[in-house]
Design brief:
Shape of chain B: globular
Strand order of the largest sheet of chain A: 1-2-3-5-4
Largest sheet of chain A: 5 strands, antiparallel
Number of strands of chain B: 7
CATH architecture of chain A: 2-Layer Sandwich
Helix content of chain B: 25-40%
Number of helices of chain A: 6
Largest sheet of chain B: 5 strands, mixed
Low-confidence stretches of chain A: 149-153
Strand content of chain A: 25-35%
CATH topology of chain B: Transcription Regulator spoIIAA
Distance between the termini of chain B: 29 Å
Mean pLDDT of chain B: 92
Distance between the termini of chain A: 9 Å
Order of helices and strands of chain A: HEHHEEHHEEH
CATH class of chain A: Alpha Beta
CATH class of chain B: Alpha Beta
Radius of gyration of chain B: 12 Å
Low-confidence stretches of chain B: none
Structural class of chain A: alpha+beta
Oligomer: heterodimer
């Protein structure tokens, strides 16, 4: 039983979609479905969905400024480690450090809370943001899944 | 969005939040609430999350924005029926300093 549960799964998934706000739900549900084989807890699923939603929303609102564009989503499972990449080829971020500050937003008039990156950081184990102004942004997130319950078995 | 989403009782507005509160589903909600604030002299808003299964920081933006608007009228913003995950997001954002999160009975 233990042996089967701890078996290493290596899996990969890629998709790309238009930067439409409808696709925020598509992206987070796709990633949630992708990790289902690891039997994640409801909390882990909610964490992943929120983090993905934040990154995709950022790409739509800030990367493409609600205009046209394609968002690239890449997921990888190495054992119980999930890696998610969300890339846009939009306007990029000039000052990443500033952008990642809690409550910092360039669009307060649009009711943005400035909590996007903070949530990604809080809900995932690792967050890396790479961006070149004028070229786009790649957000890489990692999360180890199913750790508590598996170890207790 | 149907009409039952908003209910006015005296100077309270009760807003039934959508199933998924994200940038897509929350679009236009703030504007509608603001129309009530200015048009119907609403001082307090109760956001009902009983039907909400998912929320990201877009929800925080809505609550924080409405709190700012109501401050001029010394009004309050309340959150009711938030599930565990939504409470987690509310607490993580620090918004409980400004918004009253009602405990379940």
């Amino acid at each position: 039983m233990n042996y089967i549960l701890k078996q290493k799964i290596n899996n990969r998934m890629e998709m790309n979609f238009e930067a439409f706000s409808e696709n925020e739900a598509l992206a987070r549900i796709a990633v949630a479905s992708f990790v289902m084989s690891l039997n994640p807890t409801l909390e882990e699923l909610a964490d992943i969905k929120t983090a993905v939603s934040e990154a995709v929303t950022n790409a739509i609102i800030h990367g493409y400024e609600e205009g046209e564009g394609i968002i690239f989503l890449r997921c990888r499972l190495r054992g119980d480690l999930l890696e998610v990449e969300i890339e846009d080829k939009g306007k990029g971020i000039g000052d990443i450090e500033k952008a990642m500050e809690p409550l910092f937003t360039t669009k307060p008039d649009k009711d943005r809370s400035g909590m996007g990156f903070s949530f990604m950081e809080a809900f995932m184990d690792d967050l890396e943001v790479n961006s070149i102004p004028g070229m786009g942004t790649i957000v890489k997130m990692k999360k180890k899944l199913g750790t508590q319950s598996w170890l207790e078995l | 969005m149907n009409e039952e989403q908003f209910k006015v009782i005296e100077d309270y507005l009760c807003v039934k939040m959508p199933k998924e509160v994200d940038h897509h589903n929350a679009g236009g909600l703030s504007e509608k609430v603001d129309e009530f604030i200015y048009g119907q002299k609403i001082n307090n808003i109760v956001f009902d999350f009983s039907g909400t299964e998912f929320m990201d920081s877009s929800g925080i933006g809505i609550l924080a924005g409405r709190y700012k608007k109501l401050q001029c009228f010394e009004g309050k913003v309340y959150v009711i029926n938030a599930n565990r995950q939504i409470k987690r997001i509310l607490l993580l954002s620090g918004i409980q300093k400004y918004v009253v999160i009602m405990k379940d009975e």
